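Module 6 notes. Inverse folding takes a fixed backbone as the condition and produces residue identities as the prediction. Think of it as a translation problem where the source language is geometry and the target language is the twenty amino acids. Below is one complete input and output pair. Work through it position by position during the lab.
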């Protein structure tokens, strides 16, 4: 189980485990200037007012995702947020960290990259959470980008 405290969003019965060490791990990357952080979570704006402060993260924008009437996070075989993220990203290089990707999301990443839009998805084990090696992977990936900047 991840360390930390479970929290619940009023509109979502699924608990989220917050590990206080994640804030410190993420702050260096988020303040490096190499990425433009954006929350892409069903918590929407509440991520900036609830999760971010609990982890000691700086304030940053969020993608205002819709509230679909779905019973699974993969109604079309891939993570439901992906279509909205894809439109929002357009042709920007991107790193996306989420623990709920499917093989179709990995295929999407490969297709974006093959078409000239560098994309990395990082998928922590939901039982372990974000680990230092995930951020090392992101940092190494960013270093190889021609523009060294991603969202």
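Target side of the pair, the amino acids:
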């Amino acid at each position: 189980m991840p360390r930390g405290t479970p929290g619940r969003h009023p509109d979502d019965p699924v608990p989220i485990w917050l590990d206080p060490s994640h804030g410190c791990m993420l702050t260096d990357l988020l303040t490096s200037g190499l990425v433009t952080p954006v929350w892409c979570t069903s918590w929407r704006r509440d991520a900036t007012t609830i999760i971010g402060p609990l982890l000691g993260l700086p304030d940053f924008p969020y993608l205002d995702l819709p509230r679909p009437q779905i019973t699974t996070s993969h109604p079309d075989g891939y993570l439901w947020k992906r279509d909205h993220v894809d439109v929002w990203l357009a042709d920007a290089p991107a790193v996306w960290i989420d623990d709920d990707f499917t093989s179709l999301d990995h295929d999407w990443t490969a297709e974006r990259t093959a078409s000239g839009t560098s994309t990395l998805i990082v998928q922590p084990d939901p039982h372990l959470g974000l680990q230092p090696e995930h951020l090392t992977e992101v940092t190494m990936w960013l270093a190889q980008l021609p523009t060294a900047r991603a969202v």
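Reference fact for the lab report: The chain has a mean pLDDT of 86.
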